[in-house]
Amino acid sequence: MNLETLIQQMQQPEFYPHPVQNPITVMQTHTSCVFLTGEYAYKVKKPVNFGFLDYSTLEKRQHFLGAELDMNQETAPDLYLEVLPLTQDGEKLAIEGSGEVVDYALKMRQFPQSVLFSEMLEQGELSPQHIIELGQVVAEFHKTSKTNPYIDRFGEVEQIKQAVDENYQQTESYIGTAQSLEQFKNTKAFTDQFFATQGELFKQRQKAGKIRECHGDLHLRNICFWQGKVQLFDRIEFNEPFRFVDTFYDVAFAIMDLDARGRKDLGNLFLNTYLEVTADWEGLQVLPLYLSRQAYVRAKVTSFLLNDPNIPESEREKALETAKKYYKLADDYTKAKPGQLILMSGLSGAGKTTVARHIAQGLQGIHLRSDAVRKHLAGIALNERGSDDLYTPEMNQKTYERLAEVGIYLANLGYSVVLDAKYDRLAWRSPLFDQKSRFRVTVVYCSAPLEVLRDRLQQRVGDISDATVDLLQSQQANFEDFTATEREHLVEFDTTQGEVAQLLSQLERE
């Protein structure tokens, strides 16, 4: 049975062994057909072979539908149900009939397009809380996703470089139309230099177990908020090099998509949530490479539309503008920036974390919370309440030493780093101020009336901080005042009166 006949029969309500919503909608891509019946959706793969993807035989379509089911049940178990045979008896096609098996269909729960992150963002319904949950979900997924020596081989620099170089070869013809020669040269020079000088970094990522069976296509149209939770679906099942990748390949895809849609603040929130759960600070070294790569691939794919004679002129014009945007974004990601350290300071409940998060989003910086670092050092979950052992002088010292170590490391990489802690001791501030000859160091001291501090701490729920009201008195008594040198780099901010936008402007001017 040919594909055209299959599509016709699967559009008939009587084909299905359950009630359907009529008419049945068919959504087609170059590789598959999806039939929307109301409660369920059925996916059939087209008998095509594009080299990087081969569904040309019945056996291959069965295999890849099974792989798609298994992989996506890990991240979206509510959506992916089973693979069913399509049988033919005479001229009639059926699901699990008695005739010859002529194809296979993946049965899924159907959900409204309105729950896609892409649609939610467009409608103004994608909240910071959705993005925080996404960061947590992706972090937990990466912790448990498969890795082994075979998968690990895909992290070798030669393999990654080959794929990136292929993108440049396939887009040279768009120089002068969709991208400028300068953009092309800049982007390629950046990746060439990265691969030539960072071989040891790629080996470290392999040794750290960061090459895993990832999602491979983690953009907003493959993420939904359904049945009260974030679900990742439509993982890449057809091509191993597309999914056996560094975990930051996935992270970069989601950030790039948010950035391209004009929400760099949400991209930053996703990144910092992911980092807080995983503590994979070293991954930030490869992030610019993968951000540029993901934007460039999106530019490349969009550029291909410019040569399609079947696309109307108006659509080609839109594709050209979209491609230009992605080529520019790919180039922008390669630009080096000066690093800096911003130390948050103040009593518990002063609003340091809220302000720090806004600063990080405004500066596209990395937000490091002492509460998270402390719990990582102790080996306990972020949402687990710490015992008294977590707050001994020795543990305090370890926590601030680790904050300084990671903060300086990231600032040297060119990141703006927001260190979110009380920083009430001169001994904890001094190692960071010792760096002021290398990059800018600023203290943001957050304050609020004492009764406000008490109210905030009493009302705090669902946060990783263990601070309580009874700590305020001792914190006030033990706070070591800023030195004259520190005051030259001090910004005081009343969180009950000040505007974060004004604070950001001040930080950007200094």
Automatic annotation (TrEMBL):
Catalytic activity field: D-gluconate + ATP = 6-phospho-D-gluconate + ADP + H(+)
EC numbers: 2.7.1.12
Pathway stated in the Swiss-Prot or TrEMBL entry: Carbohydrate acid metabolism
Pfam families: AAA_33 (PF13671)
SUPFAM superfamilies in alphabetical order: P-loop containing nucleoside triphosphate hydrolases, Protein kinase-like (PK-like)
InterPro entries reported for this sequence: Cell-binding_unc_protein, Kinase-like_dom_sf, P-loop_NTPase, Therm_gnt_kin
Keywords associated with the record: ATP-binding, Kinase, Nucleotide-binding, Transferase
Protein's name according to its UniProt entry: gluconokinase
